[in-house]
Write a structure and sequence with these properties.
Largest sheet of chain B: 4 strands, antiparallel
Number of helices of chain A: 12
Strand content of chain A: 25-35%
Largest interface: A-B, 53 and 47 residues
Number of strands of chain A: 18
Strand order of the largest sheet of chain B: 1-2-4-3
Helix content of chain B: 10-25%
Helix content of chain A: 25-40%
CATH topology of chain B: Alpha-Beta Plaits
Order of helices and strands of chain A: EHEHHEHEHEHEHHEEHEEEEEEHEHEHEE
Distance between the termini of chain A: 29 Å
Strand content of chain B: 15-25%
Oligomer: heterodimer
Order of helices and strands of chain B: HEEHHEE
Structural class of chain A: alpha+beta
CATH architecture of chain B: 2-Layer Sandwich
CATH class of chain B: Alpha Beta
Shape of chain B: globular
Radius of gyration of chain A: 25 Å
Shape of chain A: globular
C-alpha cells in the first residue's frame, strides 16, 4: 500500500480552461487527475438537454477532456476521476469507451458511478412522508410543485468511486457526487481507509483538502484579494495534493506555471462558500475547518495538517430543480454630462412602456450601473450632482415573469429607449429572456440512495 | 452604520486589515474575511458583527447573519441568509452568485481597542 499519493485538480467548473490540466499531466508525476464539472444549477440544465435528446445530459467538456488526456494518462499511470456524467452517466461512459477504442486504447477501463439521480423516484419520495423542507426558505410544500420538477439529484459520497477504482478503472465518471468526492475516493481507495471512527479524521482531512483544491485556480491565486501580485494568471498552474496515508498533506502546483500557492491563497479558498467552519457537512463525513494548521514549506508549497472531523450525519442533500417562470433583462448606457439624470429619465420611460405593454411581472428590479448594481443598499450614496459629473452610467433592468412573452417585454421596452430615450442612450446586443429553474435544497435519509458501479469496456 | 459618511482620518476600514472571499450556497451569501496580520484578528472579530452587517446591507440581506470565528487562520466567516435575491437561478441581480457582494464588508470601520464579543474579561 502506498504511503503517499499525488492528486491533481484538473477542473474547477464546467467551462474551466483545459490547458492547465494538460500542462499538469505533461509535467508532473500524478496518481490521479480529478475534475469537478458540476454546480447546483448544472444538473437542471443537463436534464433539460436530456429531455430533448435521450443521448445527452452529460457535460460535453468531460468527454473532450478524457479524449485528450487518456493516452498520456494511461501511459503515465494517472487515473482520471470526474463528476462529468451529469444526469446521463451511462451515455458518457459509453462515449468515453468508444473514444478510447478509436484512439488505440482497447484495454482502457471506464467505471460509471450512478445512483444520485432521484428524478424517477420523486413520486415515491413525495408520498413517503419525508418532510423535504426547503433549506433556504423553510417552505414545506414541494408536493404542490410536483408538476414543475425537472431534476432531482443527491450529493453522494465517494463510495462508488472507490468501488470503481478497486475494479481497476482507468477513468471514473460519476454523476452528482459531492465536489470533493473525486478527491476523497482515490484517497480512501489507495490508503484502505475504513468508514469508521478510527478513520474519521483522515476522511475529514481528504474532504477539507478536496474542498481547498476543487475550484482549481481558486487556491493558486485566482479570485484573490492580492490579485495585483499574482504572477501570470493567464498561465496559472492548477493545484496538486501530495497526500499522506495519515491525512497530512502538502499543497503545491504545476512546476513552471503562473499563480502562487501560499498560506493566504490556501486560506482564501478554505473559507470559500462554507457555512459554520466547525461543521463542513459532506456525504463522506463532517470536517472541522477550525482544526486546520497551515505552514509555508518553501516556494509554492503549503503544509496542511491537524484536520479533525467525524463520520457522516446519515442525511444527504437533495437538490430538486423546478421550472419557475422567466427572467427578462436589459442594459442601456448614458454619457456625461448629466448621466445620472439621463438614467433616471430612462427608468421612468421604461416604467411607462411597461404600463403601455401591460407587463405582468412578479418583480421588477432596477440598478444604476456604476453606482449600486453590485452592492445595492451597501453602496455609498452619491449625490445626483456628483453622479451627474461621472463620465458614464448605465441602467439595468431585470424582471421575473411567468412566460417568455412577458419577459420579452423588457427587451422591447428597452429597445424603445433607442428613440424615446434621453439623448446619448446606447446599447450592446439586446438580451434574450431566459427560463428560470429554481432550486429546492433539502435533506433526505441516506437510505434513499444506492450507488451503482458499471465497468464499461471499449 | 452610515456607510455614506466619511470616516475620521485615523479610522481604518476592514479593507485595510483583511482579505475577502465571497460566494454563494443557494440564497445564502457566505464571505470569508481573513486578517492580513495576526495582530489585527481581534479588531476584525470585534468589528464584523451581525448588527454591523445588517446595518450595512439594509434590504439586500433579508435573513439571519452569523459571524463564525476561525482562530486557526485568523478569519471570520460571515454567513448571510436571504442575501442573494432568491439565489443564483432566480435572482434579478447581476451578481447572481455573490462573488462581489461580500466585498462591501470591506467598507465597515475597524473598531479599535475594545474587547471582541465572546471574549472573557
Amino acid at each position: 500500500m502506498k504511503q503517499a499519493i499525488r492528486l491533481g485538480a484538473g477542473s474547477g467548473f464546467w467551462g474551466d480552461a483545459m490547458d492547465p490540466a494538460m500542462e499538469m499531466l505533461e509535467r508532473e508525476p500524478l496518481d490521479y487527475l480529478c475534475f469537478d464539472f458540476l454546480a447546483e444549477l448544472t444538473m437542471a440544465l443537463l436534464q433539460r438537454q436530456k429531455n430533448k435528446d435521450p443521448a445527452a445530459g452529460y457535460v460535453p467538456d468531460a468527454i473532450a477532456y478524457m479524449k485528450a488526456m487518456m493516452p498520456l494518462a494511461k501511459r503515465k499511470g494517472t487515473r482520471l476521476v470526474s463528476n462529468g456524467g451529469g444526469v446521463n452517466v451511462a451515455a458518457a461512459a459509453r462515449q468515453i469507451a468508444s473514444d478510447a477504442a478509436a484512439i488505440g486504447l482497447p484495454d482502457l477501463k471506464v467505471g460509471a458511478v450512478e445512483g444520485d439521480d432521484l428524478l424517477e423516484r420523486m413520486p415515491e419520495l413525495l408520498a413517503s412522508g419525508t418532510p423535504l423542507v426547503n433549506m433556504d426558505t423553510g417552505a414545506a410544500n414541494l408536493a404542490d410543485r410536483a408538476g414543475d420538477i425537472v431534476s432531482a439529484n443527491v450529493y453522494t459520497d465517494s463510495s462508488g468511486i472507490v468501488q470503481a477504482l478497486a475494479q481497476g478503472a482507468d477513468v471514473v465518471i460519476a454523476g452528482r457526487v459531492s465536489d470533493n468526492a473525486v478527491y476523497v475516493g482515490p484517497a480512501v481507495h489507495e490508503f484502505g481507509w475504513q468508514r469508521d471512527a478510527n478513520h474519521a479524521d483522515r476522511i475529514a482531512a481528504a474532504i477539507t483538502l478536496g474542498h481547498i483544491v476543487e475550484c482549481a485556480a481558486g487556491c493558486t491565486g485566482g479570485m484573490s484579494s492580492r490579485f495585483a501580485e499574482m504572477p501570470a494568471m493567464g498561465r496559472v498552474g492548477f493545484p496538486i495534493l501530495e497526500l499522506g496515508a495519515n491525512g497530512d498533506c502538502t499543497i503545491t502546483k504545476t512546476q513552471g506555471s503562473g499563480g502562487r500557492v501560499d498560506c493566504d491563497t490556501v486560506k482564501e479558498h478554505l473559507v470559500y462558500e462554507i457555512g459554520d467552519p466547525r461543521e463542513y457537512l459532506m456525504p463522506d463525513g463532517v470536517a472541522d475547518f477550525t482544526t486546520v494548521r497551515l505552514a509555508q514549506q518553501g516556494d509554492d508549497r503549503v503544509r496542511v495538517t491537524g484536520i479533525r472531523g467525524r463520520g457522516p450525519t446519515g442525511l444527504l442533500k437533495l437538490v430538486v430543480g423546478l421550472r419557475d417562470g422567466w427572467i427578462g433583462e436589459s442594459m442601456a448606457f448614458f454619457p456625461w454630462p448629466n448621466a445620472y439624470d439621463r438614467v433616471m429619465k430612462a427608468r421612468v420611460t421604461m416604467l411607462e412602456r411597461f404600463e403601455r405593454l401591460g407587463l405582468a411581472a412578479d418583480a421588477v428590479h432596477f440598478d444604476v450601473v456604476g453606482l449600486n448594481m453590485l452592492h445595492g443598499d451597501a453602496a455609498p450614496r452619491m449625490s445626483p450632482q456628483d453622479a451627474n459629473q461621472l463620465p458614464e452610467l448605465g441602467l439595468r433592468c431585470a424582471v421575473r415573469t411567468r412566460s417568455a412573452a412577458e419577459a420579452d417585454k423588457v427587451r422591447r421596452a428597452a429597445s424603445s429607449l433607442w428613440i424615446m430615450g434621453p439623448g446619448g442612450t446606447s446599447f450592446g446586443t439586446p438580451i434574450k429572456p431566459r427560463p428560470v429553474v429554481s432550486t429546492w435544497p433539502t435533506l433526505i435519509p441516506a437510505h434513499w440512495v444506492r450507488q451503482r458501479v458499471t465497468m464499461v469496456k471499449p | 452604520m452610515k456607510n455614506d459618511q466619511p470616516l475620521g482620518a485615523n479610522t481604518r476600514r476592514i479593507a485595510d486589515i483583511a482579505y475577502v472571499r465571497s460566494g454563494d450556497k443557494g440564497d445564502v451569501c457566505t464571505v470569508g474575511l481573513i486578517a492580513r496580520r495576526p495582530q489585527d484578528y481581534d479588531a476584525l472579530r470585534r468589528s464584523v458583527t451581525p448588527g454591523a452587517v445588517h446595518a450595512l446591507y439594509g434590504s439586500w440581506v433579508k435573513g439571519e447573519v452569523a459571524c463564525h470565528r476561525m482562530d486557526n487562520i485568523q478569519a471570520v466567516v460571515v454567513v448571510m441568509q436571504g442575501a442573494l435575491g432568491g439565489g443564483a437561478t432566480q435572482t434579478l441581480r447581476l451578481d447572481q452568485t455573490g462573488k462581489s457582494l461580500g466585498h462591501a464588508l470591506l467598507r465597515l470601520p475597524v473598531l479599535e481597542g475594545t474587547k471582541a464579543p465572546g471574549d472573557t474579561p
